[in-house]
Amino acid sequence: MATATRLKGFGAAFVAAAGAYGALSIRDPILSENDKGDIENVRRRIADINAVVPSREVQESALMGTSAINPLDVLVVGGGATGCGVALDAASRGLRVGLVEREDFSSGTSSRSTKLIHGGVRYLEKAVFNFDYGQLKLVFHALEERKQVIQNAPHLCHALPCMTPCFNWFDVVYFWLGLKLYDLVAGPRLLHLSRYYSAKESVELFPTLASKGKDRSLKGTVVYYDGQMNDARLNVGLACTAALAGAAVLNHTEVISFIKDEASERIIGARVRDNLSGKEFATYAKVVVNAAGPFCDSVRKMVDKDAPSMICPSSGVHIVLPDYYSPEGMGLIVPKTKDGRVVFMLPWLGRTVAGTTDSNTEITMLPEPHEDEIQFILDAISDYLNVKVRRTDVLSAWSGIRPLAMDPRAKNTESISRDHVVCEDYPGLITITGGKWTTYRSMAEDAVDEAIKSGKLSPTNACLTDRLQIVGGDGWDPASFTVLAQQYVRMKKTYGGKVVPGAMDSAAAKHLAHAYGTLAERVATIAQNEGLGKRLAHGYPFLEAEVAYCARHEYCESAVDFIARRCRLAFLDTDAAGRALPRIVQILSAEHKWDKSRQKQELQKGKEFLQTFKSSKNAQFHDGKHTGKDQSYLKPVLNTVPCRWDW
């Protein structure tokens, strides 16, 4: 009976999905001639390979230069995906925009995602069996945005096949029908068609997949496609693109209070502090957009300490394992764990990322994964693999906080939304929260639309971001790495100070092409001309030249900014990041003219940051079980000068 009901649900869903295109047609707005001219002007500024983002000093001066009679149109609080998306959207509409971020761009939730750009297979399943049209609309919308994100940042995003193992024939039929429905709902935004593979074919595609075990045998797999991204670099790219579009973006700058108009009680700006210099100043704006993610309630309570909470925080833990756990170019989905959750195992930047958990948590600046959550993920994937899954293989582990949203205007709080919420519960302060990475662009569009209404703003054109590629994306070619490999060399300084040439090998060239897009040659030029061509860590393609480039052109202001967000070494391999830290500080010190005290401070902050990543070497064991923290492996690294950097 249950089986028949589930299959009937699919039949109804196919009919609903096929008929829904009338009400939920894929948006392809027709631009006016004026809008076409505007988007070409913005595109030219962003795509210019000689364009340079304004310096931090210029950006700060722009924010300081505002006043009550000469305000910004929009001030954005928060430099995550949504906040930077809002800044880019508003700036590309011709509005005068500022953005402040307490830490670094993507320092919070936006750098700690599953790295998937997805429509939500689970939400589609709920829509089908709960006959929930609202969930179906969420999936339609997310699939529309999924393709858009990939098109807007082709160097940082790509389609990824994901394999769903089936150990009985009912599962084969069930997942095949469900994923065909997922294809149907995607419509013209489909990445690639899903398909069934036999058990033999599946093992050939995914050699570590277990074909037998625990009184069951693999009947086959269903492979479907979603998108994958380098989340933090995409976020940093959005910030730099917004800067090129005219927004004044400033990281390491926090709001300490809001400014109200005494007569109308409307928010007209904020008092902010540059956390690098300690300088405080006022920035005025017609509208303030609160895009602080999990911390949006803290921002709201600056205005009204009794404001009802909007955020129900949820913790998502991920771990990184060696590359041999999954083949390059194929992910694995554990559709149902022992407690009913879904776990992904995906190839990412030459390693394997696995997760995630979903549990209640406290909101903190640096959330840490609990050992039982790490063990849960290891246990979940071990049932599906033919390799021994070991805690000692964990190269890095991190926790991120999902800001699940509740609308403060709702009459009850029983429905916590996976969709986003935009509200103005205090005049002049608009809050945007909830949603997910995949839909950041449309979330930003909704927030800017609301800001325009609230502040009676006068944009020069309609929203352009649905067809606006971020910096490095316009004209990018997947084969562009060959130019780097053939035309550049990596000049490396040996331990004795001699500069020797080294090949720009395919691994380094591909990394630069994907991380920086059409701007990769700038980084290669630094590697060749300034003797910064060595690798930062053995076994990884990250180059010393990237540290200098990011300090000059990507607002990289600290060692943690680099190891966590500009390159992803902290997330890929905590131990390798610890070994690279002294050299990174050395290069940043030369770029930013740090004194000895600041260098020491950067080493210490980097050490403390890496302690929140629970790799196998960042833990103690007894009989194979984790018993506590041990960061001694970092101490000798951080208190000595670098050894030979000749990789």
TrEMBL record:
GO molecular function: glycerol-3-phosphate dehydrogenase (quinone) activity
GO cellular component, one term: mitochondrion
Location, primary (coarse class): mitochondrion
Domain Alpha-glycerophosphate oxidase C-terminal: from-to ranges: 463-598
Catalytic activity: a quinone + sn-glycerol 3-phosphate = dihydroxyacetone phosphate + a quinol
Subcellular location as annotated: Mitochondrion
The enzyme's E.C. designation: 1.1.5.3
Family membership noted in the UniProt record: Belongs to the FAD-dependent glycerol-3-phosphate dehydrogenase family.
Protein name: Glycerol-3-phosphate dehydrogenase
Organism: Macleaya cordata (Five-seeded plume-poppy)
